[in-house]
Amino acid sequence: MTTPAIWDAVVVGGGPAGLFAAWRLAQGGARVALVEAGGGMRASLCPRVSARMRGQQVRPAEKFRLQCNRCDCLTGLGGAAFHFDTNLGYVRGLSRSKIEQDSSGAVRAYSGLERTLGDFDRAAAEVARVYELMAEFGLPPAGTHIEAAGGTAGTGFAAADEAVSQAITVDDALTMVDALLLKAEANGLHLRTGCRVEDVDRQDGVWSLRLSDGTQFRSRSVVMAVGKLGLDWIRPLLQRHGIAHDPARRVDVGVRLEMPQEVAAPLTASCHNPKFTFLNDGGEPVRTFCVCDGGRIMQYSFLDTVILDGQHCLTTPTKRTNFGIVTTVDVPAGADGTEHALGFARRVNQAGGGLPVVQPLVEMLGRERLTERPSSSLIYAADVDLAAAMGPERVADIAGMVHRLEALAPGLIGPRTVVAAPVVEKLYPAIELSPDMESSAAGLYFTGDCSSKIIGVTYGAATGLVAAESILRD
């Protein structure tokens, strides 16, 4: 294709937000380029996933051992979300799964996407649209990997969300991403992979992007969709262009809990990804998230720290279940939430000698010292005192959660359950955005994780669509 002197839009990042934004812009007739620092989706898959897709057999005893010291399969088309089996979120409708306590002590439920887009009905419609498009691109109909939701909400929780969600395998994701890109390129999308955007400037109302291969794109609009790993790149960009933002006032910090699959079975029997929340003594929400039934814990480098996440091993399940337990911390006045969250991760890493930490739950709770150490799917980790690194407030939050969950899953507080840390989420500066995801700098949009508003596949895709619609209207 002939490269235009000025593009209508350049999308930076090929995860869910970037892919759906680029597709919609191309479909709408915009001259659009998608720039992705990594390679094609197949080229950047985890070696374990690639081996499985080639038909290579891995003995069950080797499954945990075949993992890298640090996962580096988080870039490339599809983004971190689609490089492993994952969970998409709600199928039957958007729900207000989060809660908060206001200054008067009243508790209210909300959806992060609802707040981002300014209206619940609009947010629900965008999520429904994402599912419709995913089905159009080849995602199996909802119900292929899920069961009907039940009502297992336990006592002691301020909120319990067991909305039906849909899982998606890497195989399905590949089919979907291929179909999306095929249609987008047929409509004129210019795809550039293996190339980083190194600088963004603005002159005479036009954005100028300098790429790592020395080329330069000029565009009327730019859609940022760089994900969590783009934090160190986005922060100076906000400062350099005077984009309206504030330090993060709330961040999620915590751990992942891992136990034998049969112990967690009562929690996942009616819903693959239940979300339970209570308020701690300070009124901060403590919640479960990202339940990986039959999954494993993975680690990756993040700035100067190492943090953890969970993997849904749908095609090669393990005999363990893990999920996050995080507190939405109200950052002390005058503090920067980003640095507050990174400080939490650094303290844990320091305690682990540069590694994440795994400790038996009963030891962290101070109940007993085990002579036989329970195993974990996280191989490269230190076995040290996690309570000292996290501090008494976070230990109290975890204790409050597991004691409530014990009523639903007896045996959860047992010798085979481990706590792994650190986990940090939502640590971007709070960027001021319109309901269409546009920043205070006209024509510059922030979507997905880097919007500072939401995380997740369907939410990210929805924000990409919203930004694209706004550009097409201008």
UniProtKB/TrEMBL annotation:
Record InterPro entries: FAD-dep_OxRdtase, FAD/NAD-bd_sf
Domain FAD dependent oxidoreductase residue range list: 8-227
A Pfam family recorded for this sequence: DAO
Protein name according to UniProt: FAD-dependent oxidoreductase
Organism: Paractinoplanes ovalisporus
